[in-house]
Amino acid sequence: MAADATWVRDHIRAIDDYPQEGVTFRDITPLLGNEAAFGRAVDDLVTCFHDVSVDRVVGVESRGFILAAPVAYRLRAGFVPVRKPGKLPWAVAREEYELEYGTDKLEIHRDAIHPGEKILVVDDVLATGGTAAATGRLVETLGGVIVGFGFLIELASLQGRGKLGEHRAESLTVY
What we know:
The chain is α/β, with parallel strands linked by helices. It is built from four helices and nine strands, in the order E-E-H-H-E-H-E-E-E-E-H-E-E. Helix 2 crosses helix 3 (63-75). The longest helix has 14 residues, at 35-48. The model has no long low-confidence stretch (mean pLDDT 94).
């Protein structure tokens, strides 16, 4: 795990009881709206993985896209979107997963990742780990080799890191 970048917290808004009672949603839109903070977040995520070769960066719908695309650009890697069902126009692989407040499914184009490619998965928040683990299973189903998971925020009390197995995971800040 990366050193806790406490500066990130200055740009995160906590919204209690969203999307349901008892859940505190960590809103990253203030960070995204601040060009210096947004740039620093992308730079810090890239720095976390400066020591590995990356062929593609996978971003998870939808906030993960916002971070993963510029990380891919900076790493000179391709960008691959992982989307909710019915959003991709071609043949897909699908994986169901659990959230902290329900279940959902993710899809990826079957030709988005080739066997042996080194893959970095980037998302905004690591919570229960269901989304990240499902994304990892999709990558591995297509033959990709996960070199790491990168997150802006980690909610440690939800123990999502445990669902990532032995894979490297870096988070800029941990709540």
